[in-house]
Amino acid sequence: MGVCLVTKTSKFDSAYLRRVNCVKTFCTIREHGWISRSELADITGLSRATVSETVRELLEREFVREVGSDNTQRGRPPVKLEVNPTRFYLIAVEIDVGWIVVAITTLVGEILVQRREEFRTHDYDFVLNLCVSTVDRLLRQQSIHRDDVLGIGVAVPGQVDLNRRVVTFAPNLRWRDVSLADDLERDLNLPVLVSNEAMLGAMAEKWFGRGRDAGVLVYVSVKGGLGCGIVNDRSLFLGVSGSAGELGHMSIDPKGPECSCGSRGCWEVYSDEQAILDRAFRALRTSKDSLLFQWCIVENRRLTVDDIVHAANVGDQTAMEIVRESGWYLGIGIANIVNGLNPDMVIVGGCIAASEIVFDEINRVVQERGLQIPAEKVSLVPTGLGDKVALMGCIALLLDTLLEQPEGRLNTDSVREN
Amino acid sequence: MGVCLVTKTSKFDSAYLRRVNCVKTFCTIREHGWISRSELADITGLSRATVSETVRELLEREFVREVGSDNTQRGRPPVKLEVNPTRFYLIAVEIDVGWIVVAITTLVGEILVQRREEFRTHDYDFVLNLCVSTVDRLLRQQSIHRDDVLGIGVAVPGQVDLNRRVVTFAPNLRWRDVSLADDLERDLNLPVLVSNEAMLGAMAEKWFGRGRDAGVLVYVSVKGGLGCGIVNDRSLFLGVSGSAGELGHMSIDPKGPECSCGSRGCWEVYSDEQAILDRAFRALRTSKDSLLFQWCIVENRRLTVDDIVHAANVGDQTAMEIVRESGWYLGIGIANIVNGLNPDMVIVGGCIAASEIVFDEINRVVQERGLQIPAEKVSLVPTGLGDKVALMGCIALLLDTLLEQPEGRLNTDSVREN
After folding, report:
1. Domains identified in chain B, total number
2. Does residue B218 contact residue B171 with C-beta atoms inside 8 Å?
């Protein structure tokens, strides 16, 4: 169904039930398109009356529209429904170290335009202004009126306090306690939701990706840091203050090297992009026949994880060994997750996930070290959403929040107060 | 509220909502006793109509009864409700290595009688027959008719397939794929539910213990093995095949000693009762002035973790060091859990949890190694339910399942089919 509710409340009441039905209906229309009310009832399992009611609400909010109705014919076919493709827009912003990407999408998550901007500063105000100007520019360029934009979702590589709407700690950005959502809202005059990029990755997989049918899904984001998002059934596992999923800081060797978080031997230390690059730099000292040596030392190019994966894929022995070892460490942490959370799917995102060697190794380690039942049950796959996964997560968050709110527009006050 | 639903279905519909309200109402009556319908509505936040309806159902099933109504007076006080204290009984069975405990309780979880039996075999049939005969004997002894027993809950230290109702793997009992629930049902002619003891511990804490108000609660059971139960909001986190919580088999040193599960350096290897005892035996080689040496070597007593805790509490240096080191390893794993799941409460059960030194060390490690936000948010406490925690978990499981089912009696067929 692709439904994923960020449940901010534990109140199971009839209002909550109506929200759930609304999300279910919208997602089914989005996934199937051109669908009649009775088909909707069959697929969702909701009663005809409930479907009529939720569809009425979605029509009223102009999130969906009727199509294919032909009133002139006898025995006319039932009216079909589809998500309104151009009535409203959503904006996704991904912030990472040294770059941002801004995308404008339709209500079905189709990216109409996107723009990447690079920079060499950690200054919060600089990045904030860059986000604002990039959004402004894209809106102008596409001649999209602000009133037609339902909201902006922002992905950051750090912990976010969902109640205070503050990025409390983003070590790689060197930000602490910045009011990103409020600042963007003020400067852009549009409702803004900010969340952790790995949590958004998990939402993206549930709404749009390979995890649509997963019961328990863990998304592992391998980037400048290593973060996870956990989806249980239809809900993101948030923890009590919204920082669940920081499994990158599970220590897999309590006496191992220091981590930026202050602990020792964290999974991230062995497995994030920096760890993979460090592994490459160490190998280059002795592997002068490697493609990596050629690119990095002889041609003086800036080495990336993409380069390492590419070299491994064309059979470079040094690169293959780097990738294999990285897969081993990823596998150790994933085996811990498999034992602890018994997911049916673990999806890995980031450049390294494009390597088959990595997945062979992760699979091997999980089968070797995981408990039999959870290890047999789990599928370990790379993201199918590529580098769009965080952006799509922003869209999922916006849709999820919009549909949960009975008002026509996104009301971030209610998010704030929860 | 103490509500904890083992949600076997993801179907949020009006029937599900009715179940939730029923559990909510029952728990509130259980916790408050002598409560009127209007007080119930105030406390639960349910409408008067919903309260009337759920109370009617609970009265019909004789789970609650009306008290304190005085029809002779003018302006008579409203009828009060309480859980029917003696109409029905529940049976809890805890199975561990070398012993079982069987308890008969009321619907409010009050233990009327309990009996412990010890043995020195791993033979499944022997243990099964012992459970059957002990239940039979207690029922006869208390003159309780089988018709008045609503069900039997069984706690086992191992993985349970909740759909097939089979203990798939209980390493310390040396059981694999035994149909414990079906076998007990056949021999006792009563409905039986079997679950993992750490998951039941988590349910017990949520229903009856310190975790009643916790949002995200992790129960860590330190016994012959090390298992965890995770409660998120009101639901037990089961994983896709019911084996979630096996965090004892998260590797905290991938190159560490072999574990019985086949992996290496599992948390359990450093932290369960055997690990604590092994630590003591190693220390005894050089600590001839320790109380433990006196008890174990001179008096030839069988050393237990209780002994070690006792010696540490009276200031025995060797015992204190053993306990402190055990706390350090427990703290490493708990810090991982705190980072990964962002719980507001971690409750530790088992003999070692009775030591303050252990908690001082766990707290120190979690504050030192946990990420700031989740580490500040979490309370780390020992169980307040002592060695009754698994039994109380069995009662919680029975009540939870009974209330979720609209039939008068516990129907384990529906559990089987789900």
Report:
1. 3
2. no
